[in-house]
C-alpha cells in the first residue's frame, strides 16, 4: 500500500464496532466497549431502548431472552420484553454468560453508564434509536441524557457522536430537537427519494446488500443539514474482501462485527 493516496481516491473508511466488539465480548455491554477500544477501533455502535419505568438501556432485541438470563430469573414473564421490565429488574440480569462464562455477571448497561464508559476509553459513538415506535418520546429523552453527560458540547457533536435509526420520523425528530447533532438514516431509500432526507440526515447507512458505487455517489452528491456532502456508513461487513469492495465504492464508514479484521484489510489495501 502507498502512504500517499492519489488525488481523488476515496479516503479510508472509518471502522465502527457493531454493538461494541461483539465477537470479542457480549454485545452492547461495557466490556464490549472496552474491547473495541483495546482493538484500536475508533467508533462503537449501540442500541437504545426504554424500560417500563422510563430508564434508557443499551440492548438490541425487543426481548431480553437472547442476551440475558431473563427466562431463568423471571420464568413467568414471557416474552420478556424490555419495555415490560423495570430498570431494577433488568439490573439483576446476567448479560454475559450467554456469550461466555468469562463474562458472567456482566450487566445490561444504562445509556448513562454506556456514555461514561465510551468517554473514559475515548470511543466515538454511533447510537441507534431502536424500535422507537415502542417508546414515544424516546428521542427527547436520549438527548436529555446526552446533554446531562456532556455529549452535546461542541467537542462531542463535532465528529464524536452520530444518532441513527431505521425510522425516518425518529431521525427527523432528533434533528429538530437538537440540530447540532449529526444524524443517520438506516436503510437504503431509492436514489430518487434521497433528497427528501437531506434536510435532516447527515448520513444514509445501508446494508451491504444494497450497496453499489452508484448508490454511494448518489448520497455523496447531496448536501446534508450541516452543509456538507452526505456520507455513507455501510453494515454489517465482516470479511476483508467485502470491506475492500465497500471502500472501493467510496463508503465513509464500515460497521462491522469483526472490526479488527476489517481494519487490517483496509490498512493493507
Ligand atoms: O448499525 C447498523 C445495524 O446496527 C443495524 O442493524 O439490527 O444490528 O441494529 P441492527
Ligand atoms: Ca444497531
UniProtKB/TrEMBL annotation:
Domain GP-PDE: 13-266
Record-level GO BP terms: lipid metabolic process
PROSITE patterns xrefs: GP_PDE
GO MF annotations in UniProt: phosphoric diester hydrolase activity
Keyword check for Signal: yes
Protein name: Glycerophosphodiester phosphodiesterase
Statement: the UniProt record of this protein carries the keyword Signal: yes
Keyword tags: Signal
SUPFAM superfamilies, per the entry: PLC-like phosphodiesterases
InterPro entries: GP_PDE_dom, PLC-like_Pdiesterase_TIM-brl
Amino acid at each position: 500500500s502507498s502512504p500517499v493516496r492519489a488525488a481523488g481516491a476515496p479516503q479510508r473508511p472509518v471502522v465502527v464496532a457493531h454493538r461494541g466488539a461483539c465477537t470479542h465480548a457480549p454485545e452492547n455491554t461495557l466490556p464490549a466497549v472496552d474491547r473495541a477500544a483495546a482493538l484500536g477501533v475508533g467508533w462503537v455502535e449501540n442500541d437504545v431502548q426504554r424500560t417500563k419505568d422510563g430508564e434508557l438501556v443499551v440492548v438490541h432485541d425487543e426481548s431480553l431472552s437472547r442476551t440475558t438470563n431473563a427466562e431463568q430469573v423471571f420464568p413467568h414473564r414471557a416474552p420478556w420484553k424490555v419495555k415490560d421490565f423495570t430498570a431494577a429488574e433488568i439490573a439483576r440480569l446476567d448479560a454475559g454468560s450467554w456469550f461466555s462464562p468469562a463474562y458472567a455477571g456482566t450487566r445490561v448497561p444504562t445509556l448513562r453508564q454506556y456514555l461514561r464508559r465510551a468517554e473514559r476509553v475515548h470511543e466515538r459513538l454511533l447510537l441507534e434509536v431502536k424500535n422507537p415506535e415502542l417508546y414515544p418520546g424516546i428521542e427527547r429523552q436520549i438527548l436529555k441524557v446526552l446533554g446531562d453527560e456532556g455529549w452535546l458540547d461542541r467537542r462531542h457533536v463535532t465528529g464524536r457522536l452520530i444518532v441513527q435509526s431505521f425510522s425516518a420520523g425518529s431521525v427527523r425528530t432528533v434533528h429538530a430537537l437538537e440540530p447540532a447533532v449529526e444524524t443517520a438514516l438506516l436503510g437504503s431509500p431509492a436514489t430518487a427519494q434521497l433528497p427528501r432526507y437531506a434536510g435532516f440526515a447527515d448520513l444514509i447507512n445501508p446494508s451491504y446488500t444494497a450497496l453499489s458505487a452508484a448508490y454511494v455517489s448518489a448520497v455523496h452528491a447531496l448536501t446534508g443539514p450541516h452543509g456538507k456532502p452526505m456520507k455513507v456508513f455501510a453494515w454489517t461487513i465482516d470479511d476483508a474482501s467485502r470491506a475492500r469492495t465497500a471502500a472501493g465504492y467510496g463508503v465513509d464508514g464500515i460497521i462491522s462485527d469483526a472490526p479488527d479484521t476489517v481494519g487490517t484489510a483496509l490498512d493493507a489495501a
